[in-house]
Specification:
Number of helices: 20
Radius of gyration: 25 Å
Order of helices and strands: HEHEHHEHHEHEHHHHHHEHEEHHHHHH
Structural class: alpha/beta
Strand order of the largest sheet: 2-3-4-1-5
Distance between the termini: 58 Å
Largest sheet: 5 strands, parallel
Helix content: 40-55%
Length: about 450
């Protein structure tokens, strides 16, 4: 049976071994630290579960920390205590009783008392939202790495190995001087092969596994989650190819959470959207190895590197990008295009927290309304989002600049509108004055 939610359980027939899993193990056995990067829903967590099992069978201690499960905390030391206590529990030890914020000291008290190596697997490593906390945490881990050179073999710096996993740009996540990722072996997840997709179909009970597998691979390539999703639609069906064609058509509309999340990340960074647009126009884009954005498109999973050029990872992504006005800059498309949410971080320049939340929420509502066919509600949502952005621009400007902008814009205030209260203005006046202030 196909598996769509969470890591694939050990022993489940829908799990497919891939090369990156063995690579991670080789690096750990060689006492090296690892950075594993790859798209969402690409099997990273499932692989880490199996890596931990193999480490245990090899007599190596290991603990796994999912940074997505960190609870709401108010102080940085609380974050360290939560992480180290989780490590200690996995080694069946008591929580560490320490009030300071020295991660090295805390970890040294949370490790088993023998001299065996200890591996800490950090999943979703980018998921520390507070930038200061993130820099401190990873800076302290980097400091542990620096101690390894002349450490006693039985000391905690010599025993510890870290493996970090996630979907992020390590070059920009934290300050370069604080980064433990610079001392890691960088590995990336790989797609399924066409033969593996066919075998996965057979393992999930698809009778015509050859033709179904090839049709799936033709549309989504070897993206594990998308393959599993299409296989799940076929399982138990009488007309496997007919049902598969319907599932492919629905997925191609681009409304799934998987596609929305991927394109939302791309649209949040104009440079990424520019590269994807070039890939649509030319079928490929030259790869700039020294540019973190080009690397990130591979990590996100939309692009694959062939030779020295980037190509779309599969036909699904290529077709959605080609008909997206957000990617193509408003170019006319032959059919109704899907619109994507942009990430909350795209609204970070809005200074007022309430207006930031209004802008983001209204935007999400507008996108959902448009994709659901409610054009009037979509327009209302877009208008509300724009209004919040303009209000923040005007309220955050000096009174002198606002007065000058009002004069040069030709804005006219009547009825309930008060010149000194932008919240009372019509959207038309907000646009006129806001454009003047924004240059």
């Amino acid at each position: 049976m196909s598996h769509l939610q969470g890591p694939v359980p050990v022993g489940n027939s829908s799990y497919v071994d891939r090369g990156f899993e063995a690579q991670v193990l080789r690096e750990i056995y060689a006492a090296r630290w690892v950075l594993l990067l790859g798209p969402r829903q690409h099997g990273k967590t499932s692989a880490l579960v199996r890596i931990r099992k193999q480490l245990s069978e090899s007599g190596i201690h290991s603990a796994m920390i999912d940074m997505q499960s960190v609870p709401p905390l108010t102080q940085y030391p609380d974050l360290l205590r939560w992480i180290v206590s989780s490590v200690a529990r996995q080694f069946r030890l008591e929580p560490v009783d320490y009030e300071g914020d020295d991660l090295g000291v805390m970890l040294s008290r949370a490790l088993p008392g023998d001299a065996l190596p200890v591996v800490i697997l950090v999943d979703e490593a980018s998921n520390i939202k507070d930038a200061a906390w993130r820099n401190s945490f990873y800076g302290q881990i980097r400091a542990i790495s620096s101690l390894r050179a002349d450490a006693d073999p039985q000391s905690y710096p010599a025993r510890l190995r870290f493996a970090f996993s996630g979907t992020f740009k390590p070059e920009t996540l934290i300050d370069d001087a604080n980064s433990p990722f610079n001392v890691c072996e960088r590995l990336e997840t790989d797609d399924l092969t066409i033969q593996q997709v066919i075998e996965l179909c057979a393992a999930c009970g698809v009778s015509d596994s050859e033709r179904c597998g090839r049709a799936i691979y033709d549309f989504v390539g070897g993206q594990p989650y998308l393959c599993q999703r299409l296989i799940s639609a076929v399982e138990g069906a009488q007309d496997e190819l007919g049902i598969l064609a319907e599932a492919i058509g629905f997925l191609g509309q681009g409304t799934s959470d998987h596609v929305s999340n991927l394109f939302g990340k791309i649209l949040a960074e104009p440079k990424l959207a520019d590269i994807v647009r070039l890939m649509v126009q030319n079928g490929k884009a030259p790869y700039e190895a020294a540019d973190a954005d080009y690397k990130y498109l591979r990590v996100l999973g939309i692009a694959a590197l062939v030779g020295n050029e980037l190509f779309f990872r599969n036909r699904l992504y290529r077709e959605i990008a080609a008909r997206s006005p957000q990617i193509m800059g408003g170019a006319v498309v032959a059919e109704r295009a899907t619109i994507f949410f942009v990430l909350q971080s795209a609204f970070s320049k809005i200074r007022d927290s309430k207006l930031r939340e209004i802008a983001a929420s209204a935007h999400r509502g507008a996108v959902a309304a448009y994709n659901g066919g409610s054009n009037r509600m979509a327009l209302a949502g877009i208008g509300s989002s724009i209004e919040a952005i303009l209000l923040d621009t005007i309220i955050g400007s000096s009174q002198q600049d606002v007065s000058a902008a009002i004069q040069s814009s030709g804005a006219k205030f009547s009825g309930y509108q008060v010149a000194g209260d932008p919240a009372s203005w019509t959207l038309s006046n907000l646009i006129k004055v806001g454009r003047q202030l924004a240059g």
